[in-house]
Design goal:
By secondary structure, this protein is an alpha+beta fold. The chain has 2 domains: 1-59, no CATH class; 75-105, no CATH class. Helices cover 43% and strands 11% of the residues. It has 4 helices and 2 strands, in the order H-H-H-E-E-H.
Length: 106
């Protein structure tokens, strides 16, 4: 079974419109979000923050925090005859030196 990707709420106006529409239904929040294809966590966050907003206060600005997928570290290979040493950017130079000493002694 593949999880269905639901859309995030696209700003304050989108959140207000969705929440007003939800208020006019008899649906459970989860069912409403499913029917609209909206991520329930995103809309719930907006609902909570909009409820906390003071009258006359500044509008709430939501910022989605998503970590960028980290690129794998660069890889390096050293070929000497039949020997191959492979390291990445996280490899410690002292360890590499010791490893190359072992390879050189063979």
């Amino acid at each position: 079974m593949v999880a269905e990707t639901k859309r995030k709420v696209q700003g304050r106006d989108d959140a207000v419109a969705l929440l007003e529409e939800f208020a006019e239904t008899d649906l459970e929040f989860k069912d409403f979000c499913g029917m609209k294809g909206v991520d329930g966590r995103s809309l719930q966050c907006w609902r909570t923050n909009l409820a906390r907003q003071q009258p006359g206060g500044q509008p709430v600005r939501m910022v989605e925090l998503v970590s960028k997928a980290q690129q794998p570290p660069a890889r390096y290979r050293v070929h000497v005859d039949d020997w191959v040493v492979e390291v990445d950017d996280t490899f410690q130079s002292e360890t590499l030196a010791r490893l190359l000493e072992v390879v050189a002694s063979c």
